[in-house]
Amino acid sequence: MKKLDHVGIAVRNLKDAIPVFEAVMNTKVYKEEDVPEQQVRTVFLQAGESKIELLEALSDESAIAKFINKKGEGVHHLAFEVDDIFEEIKRLQALGYELINPEPRKGADDKWIAFLHPKNTKGVLIEICQQIG
């Protein structure tokens, strides 16, 4: 794994959350994107090398809505950048880690993504991601 790419934070409402994180990070949102396959709207903020992804559910059936209903707003996942997501999935499976989606899918910010099940990672949802292209 190359680096921590971003921290994902589940929020009920982006309109309310964006000003909070823009003020704290002293920066503006640089990207907003809907990811229909995941029923989520995301925005990204960056300060130096550090990125935050705010996630708002577009449907009551989305994973973000279910997360917020169960745990409330807050840190949803840690995302690590990898060079080859296919090889990294194979490596992690060989080590016994369960992946929520064993095939990469297109995620926000022009990345291929896959998630490790939090039952194998001490309750932390881990995303691995690779830049598309």
What does this entry show, briefly?
This protein has 133 residues and is an alpha+beta fold. Helices cover 23% and strands 39% of the residues. The chain has an 8-stranded mixed beta sheet with strand order 2-3-4-1-5-8-7-6.
Radius of gyration: 14 Å
Q: In percent, how much strand structure appears in the residues? A: 35-45%
For the largest beta-sheet, the strand count, sense and barrel status come to: 8 strands, mixed
Q: Ranges with pLDDT <50 over ≥5 residues?
A: none
Apparent shape: globular
Give the terminus-to-terminus CA distance. 18 Å
Structural class estimated from helices and strands: alpha+beta
What are the key terms here?
39% strand, 133 residues, alpha+beta, 3 helices, 8-stranded mixed sheet
Could you give the topology of this structure?
Blueprint: E1 3-10, H1 14-25, E2 31-35, E3 40-47, E4 50-57, H2 63-71, E5 74-81, H3 85-94, E6 105-107, E7 111-116, E8 126-131
Parallel strand pairs: 1-4, 5-8
Antiparallel strand pairs: 1-5, 2-3, 3-4, 6-7, 7-8
Description:
This protein has helices at residues 14-25, 63-71, 85-94; strands at 3-10, 31-35, 40-47, 50-57, 74-81, 105-107, 111-116, 126-131. The chain is α+β, with helices and mostly antiparallel strands and 133 residues long. Strands 2-3-4-1-5-8-7-6 form an eight-stranded mixed β-sheet. The chain has three helices and eight strands. 23% of the residues lie in helices and 39% in strands.
